[in-house]
Amino acid sequence: MLFDSLQAGSVTLTNRMLMAPLTRARADAGHIPNALMAEYYAQRASAGLVITECTMIAENTSAFVSEPGIYNAAQVEAWKQTTSTVHAKGGRIFLQIWHAGRAAHPALNGGTPIVSSSAIALAGEAHTPEGKLPNAMPHALTEAEIAVIVQQFAQAAKNAIAAGFDGVEVHGANGYLIDQFLRDSANHRIDGYGGAIENRARFLFEVLTAVSAAIGSGRVGLRLSPLNSYNDMKDSDPLAWTEYLAEHLNRFNLAYLHVMRADFFGVQTGDVMPVARAHYKGVLIGNMGYSSDEAEAAISAGKLDAVAFGTGFLANPDFPARVKAGAAMNAPDASTFYTPGAKGYTDYPTL
Ligand code: PHB
Q: 35, 151, 181, 266: which could form a disulfide with 117 (CB 3.0–4.6 Å)?
């Protein structure tokens, strides 16, 4: 089953082992992707679908140093190296489009204030060029500001297609801006964007509507993380949350729904995948901690359509070939996940 093709919206995937989005922080100044990134992604082109690292939709929304962007012409031009080399190797690639919201920091963005659904700051400190600084207080977006960001998502999707991507994955997970609306620990609004999940989902649905109008819904995926507590996130009822979203995402006719099944820190637990499967009628991708054997069994049993592997692809550019051969896997080196240069990036050996 892992080696069966899969129709995901408008895109045909040659297998069901997808490369999960991974922040690697190797872009050049100005959030411009480069030749090293093109090499890294092309090495991994045998994935059924490569999903890129989170990519900024707007200037001055940086949360990490050296993440790429897709909001200006230089970035669009530079991404063509990645998309053309992945395509030349027979791969498919979606760009993950992302707004960090309160996880950005003014010190990374020329002093630009940060935004969120509500004026609630992240706990702890951010890594900035000035060293570690306390996370900043965001201001609660006005409705006019929300409308601007919805259009920035749509423009980013158009830019991604212009850069040669096969589609985009909207980043609705992990405590970034969309998730800051979706989950009730972060969203304390009392207008039409806050309160019940029907309202907390409004911003996401506006983004999906605008992005789909821009590039066609068959080229749009969505990633959600109902349980992940990363970035101070929690929802009071993750199973009901998952059910509501899975049910109401059907009408968008997306290429896929990509669900992270667990919590980076193991704090929040719950069996969210069966709920997603029961209510979502389209292509469902699972992620987080699947072995290839578990993935094969889950797909064979109809529990999922595909699985995204993060560290598997990070450390094994030829991950599908290794699965097929039953070969040993390289171990990922966490000390080089976010460091500059080729070490721990493009130097993992193939079989
Ligand atoms: C991370 O770099 O730690 C990171 C980035 C994006 C995510 C999650 C984690 O969605």
A: 181
